[in-house]
Amino acid sequence: MDEYNEGLAITRPIHIDYPQAVPATYFIDPKACMHLQHGTCKICVPVCRSKAIDFDQKAEERKIKVGAVIMSPGFGRVPDEALTKYSYGKHPDVVTSLEFERLLNPSGPFMGEVRCLSDKRHPHKIAFIQCVGSRDLGCDNGYCSSVCCMYAIKEAMVAKEHDPECEITIYYMDMRTQGKDFDAARTRAEQQFGIKFVRAKVADVMPWEKQLKLTYATMDGKHHFDGYDMVVLSVGLDSPTDAKNLAKIGAFELNKYDFCKTTTFAPLASSNEGVLVAGAFQGPKDIPESVTQSSAAAGLASCLLKQQRGKGVITKTYPAEQPVGEDEEVRIGVFVCHCGINIAGVVDVAKVANYAGEMENVTYYAESLYSCSQDAQEVLKQRIKEHRLNRVVIAACSPRTHEPLFQETLKDAGLNRCLFEMVNIRDHCSWVHANEPVAATDKSMDLVRMGVAKARNIRPLPEQTVPVTAKALVVGGGIAGMTAALNLADQGYQTYIVEKNSQLGGQLLEQQYTLQGDTVSDLLKDVTGKVKKNKLIEVFTDAELTAVNGFVGNFTSTIAAGKGKKETEVDHGVIVVATGGKHHRPETVLGAKLPDAKTIITQMELEQQLAGKGKTRAPKSAVMIQCAGSRGDDLAYCSKTCCNDAVKNALKIKGIDPKSQVIVLYREMRTYGYAEDAYREAREKGVIFIPYAKEQMPKITKKGAKAEVSFYDPILLEDVTIAPDQVVLSVGIVPEDTEGISKLLKIPINEDRFYLEAHVKLRPVEMPVAGVYLCGLAHSPKPLEEIIVQAQAAAAKAAIPLVKGYVSVEPTVSKVDQDGCIGCGLCESLCPYQAIRIQKIDNKRKAETIAASCKGCGICASHCPTFAISMGGFTDEQITAQIKAFGEMKEE
Amino acid sequence: MSKEEFNPKILGFLCNWCCYAAADSAGVSRYQYPPNLRTIRVMCTGRLDPSFVLKGFAEGAAGIFTGG
């Protein structure tokens, strides 16, 4: 059974889960192994040529002394009863979203074709049911799993790409697409892909002839039926199965849902000091947030281990590099790999090797069974020495995976690692021309010839490292900036904070309490105090960043601070951007201009009023308007925090005066994660939540001194008008000015004017410009807990070059021939990485590469009108030699 | 192979980060495609000097493929 494919396919007892698995090592599935189950077989032992199978291995218990533990076991599966009520297990065409994900995947059971498991037909109608095992007290999962709405949309869109004729309907309670740019994806799903969204509770799924019958109830209380070929259950994220055991081992507490218990102000610290948590075990979350949390946890651990840093590290040494001069005879060694039968099963390896042997400058050639194996590296080292090879060509697999390994061997043999070329005759040849051995052999010979031609022109390139100024600059002194600065200082690095206002704290100065009930001023007092006391942190208030020069590891910035805007120049290695955001007081609310009435306030104003001492601070009646100015009015996006704020303040009102009437008019309540508990509590305490559609929006009008709200009640099926004591607008969040910093640091911003990170999933707190990191509201709207984690993560990432002390540069960077350069500046204007600049040298304009910033793309080289720029490892000579060698291809 | 069959020589320039990686994935997934392409890896198709294309044609390429 193939567990990677959710048991939907079969595989061999000895296998790799999937090609990208880490480690990509074959393993024996004990449940399927004849020897482990029945004591027979063992045929794998003698056939393994490298004698890698040892059935005598036993699990062993080891004791390791550590200074910190990070718990990241991920999430578990929701209980079966959450699934079986929708006929899961009774009908094969009811699948979980995880199974559907495998069905969509090219490495899945049907090679990426979506087919019904019952009779392998292509489904024409697919239904997604949301909140399966989430927001469901029936299976004790009261929380919202936060990710299912988004993954359902993604799976539906991919399914539509597979089969545009397929009809897909998503049945949901609230579409919780609260993340950065998530609403845009939902709109795309609806408008471009034609995916239907139906707000309804599905009561039942029953087999119905060849199909499945869905019974569902819509908002108006009516029941409907519809037939589907396939039903996908969007399953939630449960706590990991062994959570209780882990908690016992780690001596930390779990919350009531068996996830790791943490607090708002220390979101990654478990109740046991030194035991940290990251990922879904802290609470259901998606990939970007898990990646952010893992960086943050690593940074926190690094603070704890500061004293031990660098101890126990063994530095590898290499023999002195043998010089390879310009005029020295080119002696190329060509090694052609069998890769077991992966190459040799198709390509005539001996023929390719012999062909290589006849080429000019090839002084040695050989075949090898697995050229990446450990013993092959030893052989390679010996041959380099014996035959005085000064270029190595390996015809095997992809340089993307194996180049570093062979380059390491070259270094061990005293050769510059750039004197190396890889020819890919596996991924690009034997695997893709499996049925054409003659043509594949010809292609291999051509590719080897081109590789050798390039190798003749390869020159050694210097290893470049640039020293780093081990200091950091944090732009913004709100909670994000201060958290990042404290983390960097705790790791031992001097940090400058540049704050625009006269005091630290930013937006948090306004906020009073959190949904979880914490007092915000406690956090602010604590953090501000620590920042002020910390000798490694220097704060500039009333300050502005006016100039930034340099590159990763070596920035020089000018800060204008104080009343007189006194300028200070500071050197630093990294920059953390935490310029924050603010509440947006909208002009357009619910598609109309907002009337001017004193009773209209914002959630933040209500919060300040409620946090006071006055007896009448809670309004007798309040109507809260969600998405006020957001999701289509002034702002296009969802601000993620406003639903939580509404619930928070509604509960506060009810806490002060249970008789107060609170009505929340909403489009979708996005109380994701544990906030769902508070949403439920608010409903139980009598807060009335009434949804409105974008097509039928409530109206705010002025009536006397008060504002009046009229809206359609979908349960009463009629319009209602009330004039409450207060109309509370749940307004969105906009970034503080991002354009200035964006120009200064050359970092991008998105349509909504938030900064755009380097990679949404894989590098969520890094900017595309090396050495610049991002956190807080300047990235996107988010609640306090997530801001703190993101700041910790940005600090952890920013500390990497500081800890290393140098930035290493791949030798494949551009190099300007100063004699040839005419100083036209074309390269400077075209470089996407600001890695080439015009300098005055002897009073003449000359281009110069900043090796540390260069990514080696070669745009400068291909555009240089005087051919004065060459790319390390990809010179004009080398590429031209390859093209010429291509031309020697034999005619068919 | 019959002489009439069209059997062009194609020279490809593949970006290390996308198209070269995609060609690797095609291999891993065992997608089969015609064996007419010979490739040169570059770090970015931005490296592609127009003269490379002309040189490729001069060397007898029936077509130039760039993937980036």
Would you give an account of this structure?
The complex is a heterodimer of chains A (892) and B (68). Chain A is α/β, with parallel strands linked by helices and 892 residues long. In chain A, the strands form 13 sheets. In chain A, strands 4-10-5-6-7-8-9 form a seven-stranded mixed β-sheet. A five-stranded parallel β-sheet of chain A has the order 19-18-17-23-36. Chain A has a five-stranded parallel β-sheet with strand order 27-34-28-29-30. The longest helix of chain A is centred in the C-terminal third of the chain and has 21 residues, at 784-804. The mean pLDDT of chain A is 93. Chain B has one domain (10-67). In chain B, strands 2-1-3 form a three-stranded parallel β-sheet, sandwiched between helices. Chain B starts with 9 loop residues before the first strand and ends with a strand. The mean pLDDT of chain B is 91. At the A-B interface, helix 11, helix 12, helix 13, helix 22 and helix 23 of A face helix 1, strand 2 and helix 2 of B.
Which strand order do you get reading across the main beta sheet of chain A?
4-10-5-6-7-8-9
* Oligomeric state of this protein: heterodimer
Q: Provide the residue-averaged pLDDT of chain B.
A: 91
Helix content of chain A: 25-40%
Residue fraction in strands of chain A: 15-25%
Short description:
Chain A has 892 residues and is of the alpha/beta class.
